[in-house]
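Question (not urgent): is this output format expected?
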Amino acid sequence: MTENATDQARDRLDILAGVWDTTITMLDPEGNEGAVSKAVDRYDWMQGGFFLRHDVDAEMEGQLLQSMEIIAVARDGEGYETRSYDPDGTINDFSARLDGRQWRIVGAVQRFAGVFSADGMELSGEWEQKDGETWRRLMRVDLKKRPDTAPRSLGNPARRHNIATDIEPKSS
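Got this back:
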């Protein structure tokens, strides 16, 4: 994959950068709605602009849960690789694709299919979990980006910067 294609793939991830208010609706296998929970999802470019960090702060069924995920352009240049770290010590690897407004994530036992709104300020989709050989609906998520959380785009080398330089220097 050329450097330009890698930069373009990173630039496409800017749609995720920012802070999102998330509603999580649990689903039973037939699709009936269950418990509704809230979360805050934050996507920030790490220094250097090669990795997008995703932090989740959720309250699900009265329990506070935090998780973290790192997203990078896949080594083969086809989509993205992600690794998530959950509060129970679980580490999951996924592959992801962003095709237009379609965001898809696939792992060994979980997968997600979602769609961004035309303005990129909302993302809605469903997670499924594998049960033996069968995929079962797990939850629906609806994310709304906070408008005051513009992305800190570092994907394009021309736009990369040291976050410390974003702070105005004090007058001497």
